[in-house]
Design goal:
Layout: H1 5-12, H2 15-44, H3 47-63, H4 65-83, H5 87-114, H6 116-123, H7 128-153, H8 157-180, H9 184-202, H10 223-242, H11 246-254, H12 257-270, H13 272-277, H14 279-294, H15 299-322, H16 324-332, H17 344-366, H18 373-389, H19 394-420
Length: 427
């Protein structure tokens, strides 16, 4: 027993565990608040209105995927600068990225506003203003991503945790107020936009030291290397995230507004698994970059991350299979949502597979293995094509998504085994 205790203490103090704990706690509280927000909307909006909100949230999620992939690029290179104590280059990188993302966010808002009628028509939404508000939220999310990425690079997980909580509190508070005042879907969307504003402002404080670095104009950065990494990374993250977002958009397109709202309820319950596991790859990414930069062995972090994702994924999936109706009543209050109770377990399998993919993809991106872009893009396109052709029922759509995730996960794990084998020797 005495020989085991030191190993347990060492594991508990592991930077992946502690960092994941802070992000998990902050993310858990933020996710809980987000669920309260979604539950309030699901119970206070009509099924059709909630279907509109769910589809626009999916559109928001899909639209900010490029920002998340670009954020991976920022984390990858900023962590590299900090690991080498090249703070001047980090400052140059931060300022250039801030300017670039501000200009990019303006273009994004302009694009969404110009094509708002076409987007509304595709999603069968009568009010174009809802799409325009979503465009504002998307632009603000892009602007705040630079600060979040640098905080992640600096391993400021406590601060990030606080930032997530404060932003979520702003969203739910304004959301409840706006819905109570009768603003319906528009009120919910404005609350999401306000959350992005708060996140952007709060994120500045720990990064103020970057503004006081001297002689930064004399320092150069290899932008070609950054672009070579960023372009495939964008496609990779976009492709993988589309596996659990485009289904909602396609359901909104092919099914009735009421059915789209019910499917949105399935998605909401299933994604509990993702909210529990998402902090792990978020913490793993900069830690592996740091080890990779210093030439240290990083495979143990990856293996530990997979184990940590497995535990909540299996537990929650089993719970959904055993108590589907209770889960629906607990999260959505019952009603017509009970019609889809039998699908909760299947959707949990889908989100569990996606959670594993999230770890594996982040691992490869952290060590610059961007060749995985080919299978990732292929599987995302295949899923879209198959759902477009076969969408007679929710079960059919979920099975198609599960198959795509399974094939991609198997492909990437085989690639890992080919590169590194199954044996792990600690250094």
């Amino acid at each position: 027993m005495n020989s085991i205790l030191p190993h347990i203490k060492s594991l508990v103090k592991h930077e992946l565990i502690t960092g994941s704990f802070y992000i998990f706690v902050g993310g858990l509280i933020a996710s809980f608040i987000a669920f309260l927000f979604n539950l309030f909307m699901a119970r206070n909006l009509s099924y059709s209105d909630y279907g509109i909100l769910a589809s626009l949230v999916s559109l928001f999620t899909l639209a900010i995927i490029p920002s998340q992939s670009l954020a991976s690029t920022i984390v990858r290179f900023a962590t590299n600068f900090f690991a080498k104590e090249e703070f001047g280059r980090a400052a140059v990188f931060y300022k250039k990225m801030s300017i670039f993302w501000f200009i990019l966010s303006l273009f994004i808002f302009g694009g969404v506003a110009i094509f708002s009628s076409q987007i509304s028509s595709f999603l069968r939404i009568e009010n174009n203003l809802y799409v325009v508000i979503s465009g504002i939220s998307i632009s603000l999310a892009y602007m705040s991503m630079v600060n979040i990425s640098f905080l992640q690079s600096l391993l400021k997980f406590k601060y990030l945790s606080t930032l997530y909580i404060v932003g979520s509190l702003v969203k739910i508070t304004l959301g409840v107020v706006f819905i109570t005042l009768g603003y319906a879907v528009g009120g919910a969307l404005w609350a999401v936009a306000a959350m992005s504003v708060v996140g952007y402002i709060i994120g500045f404080y720990p990064l103020k030291f970057l503004f006081f670095e001297s002689n930064v104009k004399k320092l150069s950065i290899d932008w070609k290397e950054i672009i070579r990494y960023a372009l495939p990374s964008i496609v990779i993250v976009l492709s993988v995230t589309s596996l659990v977002t485009t289904d909602l958009i396609l359901v909104k397109h092919f099914f009735s507004p009421t059915d789209a709202g019910l499917y949105g309820g399935i998605s909401l319950i299933g994604k509990v698994i993702f909210y529990f596991t998402a902090p792990i790859p978020a913490v793993m990414f900069p830690l592996i970059v740091k080890k990779h930069t210093k030439g240290e062995d990083f495979r143990g972090l990856f293996h530990l991350s997979l184990v940590l994702v497995t535990l909540p994924s299996v537990a929650i999936t089993l719970f959904y299979f055993l108590f589907p109706q209770f889960s629906v009543k607990f999260f959505l209050g019952g009603g017509d949502y009970l019609k889809i109770a039998s699908l909760i377990g299947l959707f949990a399998i889908l989100i569990s597979l996606y959670s594993f993919l999230n770890v594996v993809v982040n691992f490869f991106l952290s060590i610059k293995k961007t060749k995985i872009v080919i299978p990732c893009l292929f599987m995302s396109v295949l899923q879209i094509v198959l759902i477009s052709l076969f969408h007679e029922s929710f079960q059919q759509i979920i099975y198609i998504s599960i198959s795509a995730c399974t094939l991609l996960l198997a492909t990437l794990l085989l690639y890992y085994i080919k590169q590194y084998g199954l044996h792990y020797a600690s250094k």
